[in-house]
Design goal:
With 413 residues, the protein is α+β, with helices and mostly antiparallel strands. Strands 1, 2, 3, 4, 5, 6, 7 and 8 form an 8-stranded mixed β-sheet that branches. A 3-stranded antiparallel β-sheet has the order 9-11-12, covered by helices on one side. A hairpin with a 5-residue loop joins strand 3 and strand 4. The longest helix is centred in the C-terminal third of the chain and has 28 residues.
Length: 413
């Protein structure tokens, strides 16, 4: 059987070949309460199966395999070469096995992968795919079980560096991440063209920041407590003060998940504390059409997690972002609630998903360790005071040119 997705771009054929291999069975379907949407099936390969898969699909012999953490896919760090047992001189890759639900959207995975390839050609440190033996960027694999689940498989180049979550962060790191966020979105909006780009209009995608109101259907996972009351407050303010203004924001394609684990850095100097440069951008699975201000809000929220002075982080990230793309007055006015909305998304969806997958709870609840405290602190201090800190910190980096307000959807490219 051969499943075919459209399209060739960048000179690379993109047929998705289908074959079969064995995954351990894992029933992750929810039932009963309609507040619980049907869950995806997360792949569950063992290390031996990974080696066999890489050999059969990509023609490489694996010498080492190490599982990597993942929210809803399965990822492995592998060392592989064309020769059996040749660990010395082997190249490093990430094998990414997409969950069963997202694997039903090959156009979406295709355009995400092509975006990574495009950004790499523009000098951004993004991974690129190693082609299958058939010359394709991904392969559709069947688990061979009763449900005949299928998973899209890609082998991506391994990027060097350390996650921001594991370094001592400084204002310089936050500034660089803000600059990266603006540069990445600008490049995608202005120069990325692909026949399947319309698949990035993802409508009800829960992680798109415009969809904070959809959290209503997951909020049961918090129980009845002060956290739920706070999230309800965020949702109601978002509905009343952000949603009506969305059409005034400048539209673009968002990476959508520039978090402290998806950005890799390396020291760029011998100073103490060291200066860092971004060496890797990971996980494009949340890409969708959105707005420039969404990207900076998402970056601010996740960088707050990594700071000993979280309420001031936003100013440094904002300064970096506005060194590339100044925000309009309307976009700045929404920033507090957009950051709060991303906290609410991360905390609520993690609580919901942890109920479905308790074995992955530790990874899923990483943000919750400090996230609730930060969100509560934002509301205790108040929007006016927090914005004053952010905007004064950003202003200290230098003068910002005013941005021209313009709304509407970005054109399909």
């Amino acid at each position: 059987m051969c499943f075919v997705a459209v399209i060739a771009a960048s000179g690379v054929g993109t047929r998705i070949r289908s074959s079969s291999f064995s995954f351990p069975s894992r029933d992750t379907m929810s039932s009963g309460n309609d507040r619980h949407p049907q869950a995806f099936t997360k792949p569950a390969l063992g290390e031996g199966e990974v080696a066999a898969l890489v050999d059969r699909v990509f023609g490489l012999k694996v010498s080492r395999v190490r599982p990597l953490p993942s929210y809803n896919d399965q990822n492995f760090h592998v060392r592989a070469s064309r020769s059996e047992g040749a660990d010395e001189g082997a190249d490093e890759y990430v094998l990414k096995i997409t969950n069963s639900e997202d694997s039903q959207k090959p156009d979406l995975i295709e355009v995400q992968t092509q975006a990574m390839m495009f950004l790499s050609t523009k000098g951004f440190p993004s991974a690129t795919p190693y082609l299958t033996k058939g010359g394709d960027i991904m392969s559709l694999e069947s688990d061979g079980g009763p449900g005949n689940k299928k998973y899209l498989v890609r082998l991506l180049t391994y990027l060097p560096g350390t996650p921001v979550a594991k370094v001592a962060t400084t204002p310089q790191v936050f500034y660089e991440i803000g600059k990266l966020a603006a540069s990445l979105d600008t490049a995608l909006a202005e120069k990325f063209h692909h026949p399947s780009v319309k698949s990035l209009h993802r409508g009800q995608f829960i992680w798109n920041l415009a969809n904070v109101p959809l959290l209503d259907q997951y909020i049961y996972a918090l129980g009845q407590n002060k956290y739920r009351e706070l999230v309800e407050q965020v949702i109601e303010q978002f509905k009343g003060r952000v949603v009506p203004k969305l059409s005034s924001f400048r539209a673009c394609i968002n990476h959508g998940d520039l978090n402290d684990h998806n950005i890799l850095v390396e020291p760029s100097s011998l100073e103490h504390p060291p200066q860092y440069r971004v060496s890797g951008i990971l996980d494009f699975s949340d890409m969708s059409y959105g707005y420039y201000v969404f990207e900076v809000a998402i970056a601010i929220m996740y960088m707050m997690i990594e700071s000993s002075d979280p309420l001031r982080v936003g100013g440094h990230v904002l300064a970096g972002f506005e060194s590339v793309l100044p925000l309009t007055a309307a976009e700045r006015g929404a920033l507090f609630l957009l950051v709060s909305g991303r906290f609410a998304q991360s905390l609520v969806i993690a609580a919901h998903t942890a109920l479905l997958y308790p074995d992955n709870r530790e990874y899923l609840m990483v943000t919750a360790r400090t996230g609730w405290r930060h969100l509560m602190s934002m509301f205790e201090v108040g929007q006016e005071a927090v914005e004053k800190m952010w905007f004064e910190t950003a202003a200290a980096y230098g003068h910002r040119a005013p941005a021209e307000p313009s709304g509407g959807a970005a054109g399909d490219r």
